[in-house]
Predict the structure.
Amino acid sequence: MYDSFLDETRLIGDVSIQNLDASVDKAADALMRAQRPDGHFVFELEADATIPAEYILLRQYLAEPDDLELERKIGVYLRRIQAAHGGWPLYHDGPFDISATVKAYFALKMIGDSVEAPHMVRAREAILARGGAAAANVFTRIQLALYGEIAWAEIPNMPAELILAPTWFPVHLSKMSYWSRTVIVPLLVLMNLRPQARNPRDVTVRELFKPVAKAPRVSNAADPKLVWTIGFNMLDGALKATESLWPKKLRKKSIDACVAWVVERLNGEDGLGAIYPAMANSVMMFAALGYGEDHPHRAIARKSIENLLVIKDEEAYCQPCASPVWDTALAAHALMEAGGPVAAARVKGTLDWLRDRQVLDVKGDWADRKPDVRPGGWAFQYNNAHYPDLDDTAVVVLAMDRARASLGIEGNDEAIARGEEWIVGLQSKDGGFAAFDADNTHFYLNNIPFADHGALLDPPTVDVAARCVGMLAQLGEPLDSPRMTAAIDYLRKEQEPDGSFWGRWGVNYIYGTWSALVALNKAGLGPTDPLMTRAVDWLVKVQNADGGWGESCDSYKLDYTGYVPAPSTSSQTAWAVLAMMSAGEADHPAVARGIKHLQATQDEDGLWPEEFYTGGGFPRVFYLRYHGYRKFFPLWAMARYRNLMQSNSREVAFGM
């Protein structure tokens, strides 16, 4: 029944091989038009209303000179993404989120929106109906405390002395994730100095508070334990009661240690941790300590934030961070799949740019656990030497190795070897791999009052582990080597009862299943292995009627485990068909339907519309819309399908 695929007359319905070639060429041309002159790619990285709102509040906290045109554009953006329920969601078409809504309301009021404007009335009523601003999460309450809107007693206590704690202490920075450390350390200074926003416009949001004794608050931690929660809450009470008794010399020593920690990791114009919350906290910390605007540390920290702005003709917003290494490496994979001499030349430019960004001389925080491992990873952002990650590193190494083998692009052997060495050195004890650290699994910390966001840790996950398995397999690691055996056992253990795999950094089960199947295929598990067949059966089962695949961020909900259907998206459809092809199912009708869906939804410019968020920041609290995903993943999937259909083999030869 599949002979018609090979005669280049019909694929499915009225879609021909020639039309598929045209779709691939159009998508590849569109992607290549976005390449920067130095060879790299970088696309917008959009989160929710929180960060652009915080940017407005940061400027007024510091009493910076007005930029009314920028404020106007951010206001346009915030009003546009307000949802029908009156508040602001964490992702497109998502449910009401009280913390995002409080910040967006505060920012809009700060730039001059009348509290009687219909959109402000709807937001305020929605906030009050859910307990008022006091019901927001810890980070939002800290923002409100900095503006004097609530008392610091409403904030869980985090003494600055935490920076001096010995490593055996149960609550220690090294036991937390990289993003937690970079956000918390400058925050320790702020929470102990308790500065007040300068707020020259004297804007308040007292109308967002209900006259009740206790606002309802929800933890997003996945694994709370009552005994730990009670214990940590008792500790918080004790810390508050004895706060005035802490020795002043010890407090000064602690604050000095926090400042030294931040300065060591300031990271130039890319900022502390290269993520907005840490960068903003560092600026406020320097201001609270009396550093002038022209002080080099404060000035460079402030400049790093400006680099995250996306300013368009009529609206603007602030990104949570930049994603150039991730975007560039994935674009290289898509272009190699598309093939052709022009794409090959572009790939060489991407790899040259990537090679220069390998971290070879900085032992970051990851070395606390693995001091004998040599550096060799890549970070997600332009520069973030203290915090390379295994996911980016594996994707870059996979691209360099493929280019070496299939395009004859030389000069990256040492980079490949150092990247592999670093990843191998950071394998966790359970056989898996995490994003930034090894064995970051102190789950009891999710019970501390400060951790209501449920994102304090960086444990191993299927998607990162799979990427590392795929890389090792592509580089020739034997299936029966101890580290490969441990990693595959980890993936096998993590498969869900329905056959899917949970995805940490992409939404969600589709992303995790794609990651796992591609890696397991390259590691040598055949298409008849139950690990593969059960995952394929699940993908077929959740395919949408239009031939595509879609999944809601709601699939991360604490009270529900499993896939939540959503309208088809180009990136999730691409992941699903790439997964099935890797599992030996290139000829399955579901794959052909998925390819047809991608062709049918491709715009004239060669790209795809995609408003839905398919990137994961922190499950249940922070999601990402990668604007590049619609540019390279559908291209990748269509090109791979075409290549397999036109070859004598259906075997996917790569670890990604």
Summary: The domain at 46-208+236-318 is CATH 1.50.10.20 (Glycosyltransferase). The chain has a mean pLDDT of 92. The chain has 23 helices and seven strands.
